[in-house]
Amino acid sequence: MSKIAHLHIGENKYDYDNKCFVPDEGRRNRMTLICTLDGGSIDYILYSGWTSSGTGFALSNMGTVEFPVYKAYPEQTKEEFVQELVDRINATNLYRVVKQVGKVTFEPTVPPKTQEDEPEITSKKVVALWVDDINEYLSFADMADERIRADIGRKLSLMQAELAEETSTKS
To answer: Half-sphere exposure (CA, 13 Å, Cβ side) for 105?
Structure first.
C-alpha cells in the first residue's frame, strides 16, 4: 500500500454580509483525508481532526465531493491526481484543503558519537565512584553492622590493588 495524498481539510462558513463562503478559522469540523493505492485500487480514509486519533467518517460526510477512483487519463501523474482531488474538494462551498501533508522525515540533530567522543575511563574515575559509594555507606555508620563494614573493607582493598596495578603498568 502506498500513500497518494494526506490532506487536512477545513470547513467553510457562509458570510451573510458578503453573501459568499469563507474559510472557518475556528477549530470545528476539521478532518483528515488519506488517499492510498492498495493493490491497484484507490482507497480513501476520512476521520475527524488533524491527528490519527479522530473518529472515522463515511466519505458522504464531505457532501457533494466526487472522489476520483481512477486516473482521469492514462498519463496522469501522482501529482496531477492529487491536484485534481484538491480541486474537487475546494470546488465545493463547504470544505477546503488547508494543508497537504508531505512525507515526514527526521534528520539527526546530533551527529553520532565516535570512539573519540567517548570519555576515557581511568582508574581515578573508578576510584571516585567507589569513594562515593563508601561515603554513602559511611553516612550510615552509626547503623552499620559487620556485613557493611566488611563490604567497605573489600572495596577499599580492591581500590588499593587497582591503583597499585595501574601505577606498575605505567612505569
So the answer is: 3
Residue 1, C-beta contacts closer than 8 angstroms, at least 6 positions apart: 36, 37, 38, 39
User: Where does 15-145 have alpha helices with state H?
Assistant: 78-91, 123-138
Measure the CA angle with vertex 33, ends 69 and 20; round to 5°: 95
Q: Cα 55 to chain center, whole Å? A: 21
CA distance 138 to 135: 5
Q: Split the chain (171 residues) into runs of 10 and give each run's mean pLDDT.
A: 86 80 69 87 84 76 85 91 91 83 73 61 63 62 62 75 72 59
**Using CA atoms, how far apart are residues 12 and 90, in angstroms rounded to an integer?**
10
Please state whether the predicted TM-score (pTM) of the whole model is above 0.70: no
Q: What residues does each domain of the chain span?
A: 2-100, 119-170
Record the cell numbers describing residue 133, joined without a space: 559509594
Q: How many CB atoms lie within 10 A of CB 85?
A: 22
Cβ contacts of 65 within 8 Å, gap of 6 or more: 59, 88, 89, 92, 95
Q: Supply 74's cell numbers.
A: 492514462
Grid coordinates in use for 84?
A: 485534481
Pairing between strand 31-38 and 41-48? Answer: antiparallel
CA-CA distance, 141 to 102, in Å (whole number)? 63
